[in-house]
Amino acid sequence: MSPAPEPPARTGLSVRSLRKSYRRRPVIRDVSLDLAPGEVVALLGPNGSGKTTCFYSIAGLITPEGGQVVLDGQDITGLPMYRRARLGLGYLPQEMSIFRGLTVEENILAILELSERPKARRGRLEELLSEFGITHLRRAPALALSGGERRRVEIARCLAARPAYVLLDEPFAGVDPIAVGEIRALVEGLKERGIGVLITDHNVRETLGLVDRAYILHDGRVLMSGTVAEVVRDEAVRRVYLGQGFSTSLDAGRPAGLNLVGGRRTP
């Protein structure tokens, strides 16, 4: 019996010179970015900046007209979403993505049936239910879940496919303050697993409080990229996106407005 193939070396998600136009109007223009394993990165920008088109191009929902999306050294630009998922790229949309007519347990098993051997499925299910604190919800219908509970189930289901990188689309949209804290903890858990996370969200304050780095798009181009402190200090970013009053005072090179507890950066 031949040995199992070695898992691919995880070198990161790399986007190079992505371009996309609609009706001859450029929407993204030569956008490049990188995401390393175990890193949390934000893709942000004002409305109309091209961030959604860029994010969807990385996920495989949109085909770019030029450029490359490279996953661990493999060009995946032309691959459909399911092929990207098999290679380790997970995607969590803003909209409810779990099956509404199924229970929590059934939702996770639906993915495990595709990713795990039959004998391993039940054990893996119990691991995910326990890890995400949803064992007591296992027989609850998806429609009965709160926003935070739903996100936990969605992330557990995403991890059932064993991704190396996860794309989070608007994770803070439409959730209450308690759920925001839960989502932050879940993202920190992904980071601790060595999973790279790329986030796009309109809630810039919550997002910047969570990420290691950020890319700011404006008019289809990367206006600036860097650490949270570098992004918040940048005059061009404040002028076109954050506003002049956004976290203008810095404490030890860090935005004072982000010095919060509960998983966020603290002094």
From TrEMBL:
Classification of source organism: Bacteria, Pseudomonadati, Pseudomonadota, Alphaproteobacteria, Rhodobacterales
SUPFAM superfamilies reported for this sequence: P-loop containing nucleoside triphosphate hydrolases
GO cellular component: ATP-binding cassette (ABC) transporter complex; cytoplasm
Highest taxon, organism lineage: Bacteria
A Pfam family: BCA_ABC_TP_C
Compartment(s) where it occurs, according to its Swiss-Prot or TrEMBL record: Cell inner membrane; Cytoplasm
Family the UniProt entry places it in: Belongs to the ABC transporter superfamily. Outer membrane lipopolysaccharide export (TC 1.B.42) family.
Organism (species): Rubellimicrobium rubrum
A biological process from GO: transmembrane transport
The protein, known as: Lipopolysaccharide export system ATP-binding protein LptB
